[in-house]
Specification:
nine-stranded mixed beta sheet, 5 helices, 9 strands, globular
């Protein structure tokens, strides 16, 4: 699957920045995957249905997360969305169509496994990922149980743009790359055929024990943060199923 094909499938959404890239991630890239979110740091992997995020959160905390989803979890029938609450273990809010015309296109469940530095599993959970399409491209929406990973008040919406540098799996990080990751200039992301730069627009919040995230890539859409924030407010105004 080439880069353009990968852009069309299963990229999902992270929270913020990546501090370090573990070489073990690259070994998994021939599997299928999606994006994983972690507190403060993320690694975006563009593969078909599996992604691994690596982060340094602190001693005794998760070192990286593995998430898997496959074609069997895909669904396009919007009436099935409420049924996914049982799968992920929380009741959540959502809309099938936004006021700006964005409409639900596809969804899937991901099985996530947080592991420590010794590769020991410390938490397993599931997330629901929904893809919406509209005149301004694709929008990705993620829902999961809140795990105290966001430094915001309940219901407070956070919106930001994060620059990404996508590199091939055999790319060797330079000292400048490491400095850029440390400063937050770029999130280093693995999986492209050549070095590419792009931005990712994030809108995140947590509410009543549920963590939500909307995300759009600059190469796949042109929504503004204000527009995405309005969409988040629409979700907040909806009733949880």
């Amino acid at each position: 699957m080439n880069r353009e094909e990968l852009k069309k499938e299963y990229p999902q959404m992270p929270d913020s920045f990546l501090e370090t890239v573990n070489k073990s991630v690259a070994a998994e890239l021939d599997k299928n995957g999606k994006v994983i979110k972690m507190k403060k740091r993320i690694l975006l992997v563009l593969a078909a249905t599996l992604a691994i995020a690596v982060t340094a959160i602190g001693a005794g905390k998760a070192a990286y997360t593995v998430a898997r989803s496959d074609a069997f979890s895909d669904f396009t029938d919007e009436s099935k969305i409420p049924d996914k609450a049982e799968d992920i273990g929380v009741d959540f809010k959502y809309v099938t169509e936004f006021e700006n015309g964005y409409r639900f296109n596809k969804g899937y469940i991901s099985n996530c496994d947080e592991r420590d530095d010794n590769d020991v599993s410390i938490r397993k959970y599931k997330s629901l990922d929904l893809i919406y399409t509209g005149d301004a491209g694709k929008l990705f929406f993620s829902v999961e149980e809140y795990n105290n990973t966001m430094d915001t008040e309940d219901g407070e919406i956070s919106a930001f743009i994060q620059p990404y540098k996508c590199v091939p799996v055999d790319y060797e990080l330079t000292e400048q790359d490491k400095e850029d990751m440390e400063s937050g200039k770029y999130v280093i992301s693995v999986g492209s055929e050549e070095v590419e730069l792009y931005d990712v627009y994030h809108v995140t919040w947590h509410e009543d024990g549920v963590q939500y995230m909307l995300m759009q890539y600059s190469y796949s859409g042109s929504l503004t943060l204000d527009e995405m924030t309005e969409m988040a407010e629409e979700i907040q105004a909806a009733e949880a199923d």
